[in-house]
Amino acid sequence: MRIGIFTDSYKPYTSGVVTSISTFKEELTRLGHEVHIFAPSYPNYTDTEENVYRYYSVPSPTNPDYTLAIPVYPGMNLLIKKLQLDIIHVHSPFTMGRVGLHYARKYYLPLVFTYHTRYDQYVHYVPVAQDLAKDMTIKYSRQFCNSCDHVIAPSPEIKQMVEDAGVKTPVSVIPTGVPLYRFENGDDTWLRRHYSIPEQNKILLFVGRLTKEKNLFFLLDSFKLAREQLPNLTLVLTAQGPLETELKNYAQRLGFSLDRDVIFTGALPFDTLVHVYFSADLFVFSSLTETQGLVLIEAMAAGLPVVAVRASGVQDMVDHGVDGILTACDRKELAEAICQVISDPHMYQRLQAGAIKKANLLSSRTQALKLERIYQHLLDGRRYRPGRSWDFGSWFGM
């Protein structure tokens, strides 16, 4: 089948959403399908992959690495007709999601939406009236979901949240899987070869965007407490984001060296990131706003136990006491859990075995097959209902 993916973010931007889209595209292509990506453009970036169509964009005012698509593409109608898409899958309810919705309705195509992000948890980027913005965002997201033919939730918790919000469209849980074949030859010496990490130190790893919602000042505080118990620890943060400078300054104020105590690697290509996972001893995660936390499963695929704050999305991916340890959002409790896992070889080995088992259950191939079945079901049933309209007034109860 020919699948059109409409997304507000794609390569070279790095995020869980981009990883999810890339992973599913790769697996669906391996299954024999034709996938076309419609996404914003990025300065000084040229695509090397086929079937990617870029919309003109402008830089985001709150995140210089992110661009906002201008929803105008000359010749788009002719392109859609030429591609003869069978189904449209959108990955945002906003700009590019609405573009996808428009063409799905215009050409009577089934529309699927993946609810990647708890959008109401990001209103701190709005400078004023945050409570109103949160309420509007929830209503908007509900209306968008109900304009689709099927909604994909990356975890059972998000499925429940979507349904509780009043979404009537069918919702299925399909987490983003891990391409296990890419974890077959990890280099466990990569970090020590590229950074001045003392040989005796155990390496804690965080992977994710350096943004407020990832709760990273809390993580640095917890790491300081852990170091008071176990001095031979190094924390590696593999990511980039708008808080990078602030986080580096904060780490230095806590007394850490940025070349051996707390290391910021910046964003890395996935093939290199695999080596980073294999080079670490423990994965640590403090985010409070995940829908899935794909990096948790990637870490498990490299044999890393997880110590994480118990939060939305995270507790669906980590089984406490089986493949990781979940804690309250408490600095001391997180630090103690880190020290416990690192110091207890029997616990470590048990959690490591559980982590590898969990990753094997969540392969990208398995998840792509689930998505393929939903696509085929929609194509067979042609669930498009012409009576549904995009009523701006109904978004906000007007």
Rg, Cα atoms, Å: 21 Å
Percent strand equals: 15-25%
Query: In CATH terms, what is the fold-level topology of the largest domain?
Result: Rossmann fold
Biggest beta-sheet profile: 7 strands, parallel
Query: What is the CA–CA distance across the termini?
Result: 40 Å
Mean pLDDT: 90
**What is the 3D form?**
globular
Number of helical regions: 15
Percentage of residues assigned to helices:
40-55%
CATH architecture of the largest domain: 3-Layer(aba) Sandwich
- Element order: H for helix, E for strand: EHEEEEHEHEHEHEHEHEHEHEHEHEHHHH
**Any idea of the CATH class of the largest domain?**
Alpha Beta
How many domains make up the coordinates? 2
Oligomer classification: single chain
Kindly state the number of beta strands: 15
